[in-house]
Design goal:
By secondary structure, the protein is an all-alpha fold. It contains 20 helices and no strands.
């Protein structure tokens, strides 16, 4: 629930980039304004390792549950403020500066959300079903992403293009506040995980968990980074860049694209628990390698179909591209938690995954849009995505199987 709300907040900016860009970066070409908006989108990823380091320390030192409350509250406040920001027409250069500040705050709090939820769920699940229960966290993330696209599509449909540009774009951001309070109501009831309670009772809590990650657990840290780069690159290619590609490169109707970008991750979210359960019986590594090979094969085919000019084929292609997304997201998160012991798990997952978000997630929407602008080759973004997927496959070949094994203390 918390991951769904937090990633509604976090993804909404990228989904609304096509509408928000000209309001905060006027005087540029339409694609140039979108590039500037995606540059601000990327800025949130630059501070995510800082947020990951801070909330990892907080979670490993003082408990998981308190950290999960702080992250969702901070993210919700930052996202709501975006809905109140004056545009460039009102306050000039201060408009994009304030937008950047809000986006940086979002990135800081997002740095502790997924890793905290991953850690908490893994420590509360039985060894033979960690994949199944762990898959509900990325399913929540996907549900939040789908909701963000759906809400943007609904407001665009009801209000129309002109009203959305005038004031309607604010409404999806203002919805963040009630969603956050709903999540807080649920999260304040959480107790800490049994494993954290155990090490806390036995006085095994590490004083400097981040230092331990760097000195003792560099190998799993690098493995999380290698796998996570592709996980983020492939995800944000589908969730953010395809929105830009379908509307601004191919010229499809933005309302139809919003609905499509809502339904595809929703369908993926529904599949994730099944793939998580499969990883419990057939192994994490096997399914992840299959998922990344699926990206290498299916993403070029999908983009080729989208470039045909037929929206029916674009619908089919989008769902095709989100099939490996469902596999990789559902199985990757449980694997990360299994690579670290309890005393540094939050810090290790946070640091590794958030470094990967910079290298994969922050760069993909911007680079994909820029490459198309520079080359005119509508197929070119697939090359970057395929390269990151190859890196993930090579990294996974060095990872031992973790399914059904007990978590390390």
């Amino acid at each position: 629930m918390g991951s769904a709300v937090e990633y509604y907040d976090f993804a909404l900016y990228g989904i609304m980039a096509v509408t928000v860009g000209p309001l905060f970066f006027p005087g540029q070409s339409e694609l140039g304004a979108i590039l500037a908006t995606l540059g601000v989108f990327a800025s949130a990823f630059l501070v995510r390792p800082l947020g990951g380091a801070f909330f990892g320390w907080l979670g490993d030192k003082h408990g998981r549950s308190m950290t999960l409350i702080v992250t969702v509250l901070g993210m919700g406040i930052a996202s709501t403020i975006v809905g109140f920001l004056p545009t460039y027409e009102k306050i000039g250069i201060w408009a994009p500066i304030l937008l950047l500040v809000c986006r940086i705050a979002q990135g800081f709090f997002a740095g502790g959300e997924v890793s905290g939820a991953v850690t908490y769920i893994s420590e509360c699940s039985p060894s033979n079903r960690r994949g199944f229960f762990g898959a509900f966290n990325p399913a929540g993330v996907s549900l939040g992403l789908a909701t963000a696209a759906g809400v943007a599509g609904l407001f665009s449909y009801v209000l129309g293009h002109d009203t959305m540009r005038e004031w309607g774009w604010r409404m999806p951001f203002l919805l963040c506040l009630p969603l956050v309070f709903m999540t807080l109501w649920a999260r304040v009831k959480l107790e800490d995980s049994p494993r954290f309670k155990s090490i806390s009772k036995e006085h095994k809590v590490v004083r400097t968990p981040l230092a331990d990650v760097f000195t003792t657990y560099r190998s799993p840290l690098l493995k999380v980074i290698g796998i996570g780069i592709a996980q983020n690159a492939c995800a944000y290619f589908g969730l953010v860049y395809l929105n830009v590609h379908l509307t601004k490169v191919m010229g499809y109707d933005s309302v139809h694209v919003f609905w499509l970008m809502a339904l595809a991750p929703l369908a993926a979210a529904l599949l994730m628990p099944a793939f998580g359960a499969l990883s419990d019986t057939h192994g994490r590594r096997r399914l992840l390698i299959g998922g990344y090979l699926g990206y290498i094969v299916l993403v070029p085919i999908s983009l080729h179909l989208m470039n045909s000019g037929e929206f029916t084929l674009a619908i089919l292609a989008t769902f095709l591209a989100f099939l490996p997304f469902a596999v990789v997201q559902s199985v990757g998160y449980p694997l990360y938690a299994e690579l670290f012991p309890t005393r540094v798990r939050f810090s290790g997952v946070s640091l590794g995954f958030n470094i990967a978000t910079i290298l994969g997630g922050a760069t993909t929407p911007y680079l994909s849009t820029w490459i198309v602008q520079q080359t005119g080759d509508k197929q070119s973004p697939t090359y970057f995505v395929m390269a990151t997927a190859i890196v993930a496959v090579l990294t996974l070949l060095t990872v031992g199987e973790t399914a059904k094994t007990a978590l390390k203390d």
